[in-house]
Structures are given as structure tokens and as C-alpha cells.
Backbone:
């Protein structure tokens, strides 16, 4: 149970670090500042916290990028459907003319 809670906390830290990065802040410095402010881990575990928090940040960054790419792909598909309708109709008419002479 503890690992699930820790995992959720790391992802919360990862999302916070993503916002720090988007605002132009230094992610590594922010991890150290968080530990100084909230005493998350003892001094001998700071390096492990930095690594875990940075991996959580990278995961959140990649997840946001993937979501953006999916949205872009969907929008591209929607635009293509609407812009290709005239081409498809012309192609169908041409096919009907070729097949049935109409």
C-alpha cells in the first residue's frame, strides 16, 4: 500500500515539475527546494529522490506530449474528412460515368 501512495506522490511531484519547466524554471533545483521545504527524505536519500522525481517529471512530460500528438492527429483527420469530400464526390461521379455511362 505504501508504494501506491508513494507512486501517487511522485506523479504529483512530476506534474509540479512539469509546470516549473513550462514556466522556465530549473527542474533539478526545484526538486532540491521541495526537499528542503518539506523534508521529504533524509539527506542520504536526496540523490534517490532526485532520480525518482526526475523520472516522474519525464513520464508526465511524455504523457502530455503523447496527448497533444493524439489531439493533433484527430484534428488533422477531421480536417481531411471535410476537405476531401469534394474530391471523393468527383471521384464517385467519374467512377459512375466510367461504369454506367451516366
Residues:
Amino acid at each position: 500500500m505504501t508504494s501506491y501512495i508513494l507512486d501517487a506522490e511522485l506523479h504529483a511531484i512530476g506534474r509540479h515539475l512539469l509546470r516549473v519547466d513550462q514556466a522556465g524554471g530549473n527542474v533539478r533545483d526545484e526538486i532540491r527546494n521541495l526537499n528542503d521545504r518539506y523534508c521529504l527524505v533524509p539527506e542520504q536519500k536526496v540523490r534517490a529522490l532526485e532520480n525518482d522525481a526526475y523520472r516522474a517529471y519525464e513520464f508526465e512530460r511524455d504523457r502530455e506530449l503523447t496527448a497533444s500528438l493524439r489531439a493533433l492527429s484527430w484534428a488533422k483527420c477531421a480536417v481531411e474528412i471535410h476537405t476531401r469530400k469534394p474530391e471523393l464526390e468527383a471521384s464517385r461521379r467519374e467512377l459512375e460515368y466510367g461504369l454506367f455511362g451516366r
